[in-house]
C-alpha cells in the first residue's frame, strides 16, 4: 500500500493536473464528452454506444482532481435521475479523467462545518440519488478514487478500473471518518480485516489489489478502460430493462438482510418475472432458438 503522505508529496511537487478530456483512439472516436445541459459546471454528460443507449457522466473539476463539492453532487444526482427516467438509456457510466476519478470530498468546503450545520442540512443527502437509481451504474475508475471518490465508486453497481487506479479511505489523516459508506460498504465488499486496515491507516491500494479483494470487477490498461466499460454497459443493454432492474434489486437485497430473508426476497422477484411479457418472450425465444425481442413489460 502507498501512504497518503507519499502521494500528497508527489501531487504537490509535480502539480498534477489533467485537462479532464479522455483521449479517444482511432476506433473509439465516439468517446467524446460534451455537455447537453448548460447549467452543468462540474460534470459533462454524453450518450454513447452503438445504439446510443449508454448514459455517460464525467466528473469535471480537473484542477481540483475532481474533488466532490456539493455543487458537483447536485449536478451528478440530477444527471443520474434524468438518465434513469430516460427509456432509451440502458445503463449509466460514471468516470473522471486519467489522473483522478475523484480524489475525495472538497475539504475546503467542509472545513468550517459543525455538527449542528451538517445535521440540519442533511449533509451528503444528495449521494442517495446515485444509490437509488434503478438502472445499473458502472464506475470507470482511472487515477485516484480516495475518500468520497472511493465511496462514490462503491455506490455504483460495478467497478472497472484502469491499471493505475488507486483506492483508499484516508479520512483518518484529517481527523474524521468516512461518512458516505466507507465504513459500511467497504467491509461488505472486502471483509472486516481489510476494511479496518484501509480505514485505520489511510493507506491506498492499487487496482490489482482491489481486484483481488473483490472491490473491483476487472482491471484494464488506462487507455482501454472507458472502451471496455462501454462494452459492458452495451452488453447489459441487450437484456430486458425491466428484468435487469429486478435483478439489480435482488442482488442489492443481499447486503440489506439475512440469507433466509434474502432468499425469500429473491424467490418473490423470481416469481414476479412470470408476470412479465419479457420473461415469456425470453423463454419462448430460447425454445425456438432465436434472439429475443424485449419490450420492457
TrEMBL record:
Keywords: Fatty acid metabolism, Lipid metabolism, Lyase. The keyword Lyase applies. CDD domains: crotonase-like. GO terms for molecular function: enoyl-CoA hydratase activity. Pfam families: ECH_1. SUPFAM superfamilies: ClpP/crotonase (SSF52096). Its EC number is 4.2.1.17. GO terms for cellular component: mitochondrion. The keyword Lyase applies. It comes from the Eukaryota. One of its GO terms (biological process) is fatty acid beta-oxidation. Signal peptide: none annotated. Belongs to the enoyl-CoA hydratase/isomerase family. PANTHER family: ENOYL-COA HYDRATASE, MITOCHONDRIAL, ENOYL-COA HYDRATASE-RELATED. This is Probable enoyl-CoA hydratase, mitochondrial. The lineage of its organism: Eukaryota, Metazoa, Ecdysozoa, Arthropoda, Hexapoda.
Amino acid at each position: 500500500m502507498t501512504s497518503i503522505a507519499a502521494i500528497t508529496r508527489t501531487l504537490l511537487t509535480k502539480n498534477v493536473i489533467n485537462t479532464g478530456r479522455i483521449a479517444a483512439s482511432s476506433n473509439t472516436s465516439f468517446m467524446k464528452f460534451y455537455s447537453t445541459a448548460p447549467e452543468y459546471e462540474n460534470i459533462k454528460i454524453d450518450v454513447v454506444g452503438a445504439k446510443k443507449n449508454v448514459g455517460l457522466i464525467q466528473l469535471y473539476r480537473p484542477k481540483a482532481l475532481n474533488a466532490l463539492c456539493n455543487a458537483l453532487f447536485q449536478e451528478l444526482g440530477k444527471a443520474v435521475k434524468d438518465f434513469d427516467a430516460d427509456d432509451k438509456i440502458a445503463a449509466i457510466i460514471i468516470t473522471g479523467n486519467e489522473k483522478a476519478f475523484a480524489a475525495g470530498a472538497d475539504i475546503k468546503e467542509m472545513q468550517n462545518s459543525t455538527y449542528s450545520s451538517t445535521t440540519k442540512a442533511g449533509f451528503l443527502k444528495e449521494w442517495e440519488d446515485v444509490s437509488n437509481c434503478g438502472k445499473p451504474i458502472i464506475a470507470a475508475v482511472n487515477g485516484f478514487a480516495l475518500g468520497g471518490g472511493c465511496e462514490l465508486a462503491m455506490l455504483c453497481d460495478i467497478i472497472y478500473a484502469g491499471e493505475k487506479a488507486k483506492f483508499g479511505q484516508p479520512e483518518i489523516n484529517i481527523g474524521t471518518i468516512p461518512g458516505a459508506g466507507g465504513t459500511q460498504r467497504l467491509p461488505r465488499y472486502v471483509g472486516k480485516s481489510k476494511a479496518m486496515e484501509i480505514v485505520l491507516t489511510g493507506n491506498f491500494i492499487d487496482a490489482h489489489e482491489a481486484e483481488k479483494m473483490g472491490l473491483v470487477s476487472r482491471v484494464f490498461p488506462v487507455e482501454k478502460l472507458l472502451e471496455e466499460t462501454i462494452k459492458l454497459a452495451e452488453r447489459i443493454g441487450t437484456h430486458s430493462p425491466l428484468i435487469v432492474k429486478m435483478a439489480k434489486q435482488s442482488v442489492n437485497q443481499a447486503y440489506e438482510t439475512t440469507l433466509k430473508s434474502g432468499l425469500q426476497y429473491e424467490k418473490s422477484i423470481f416469481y414476479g418475472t412470470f408476470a412479465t411479457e419479457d420473461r415469456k418472450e425470453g423463454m419462448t425465444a430460447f425454445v425456438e432458438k432465436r434472439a429475443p425481442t424485449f419490450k420492457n413489460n
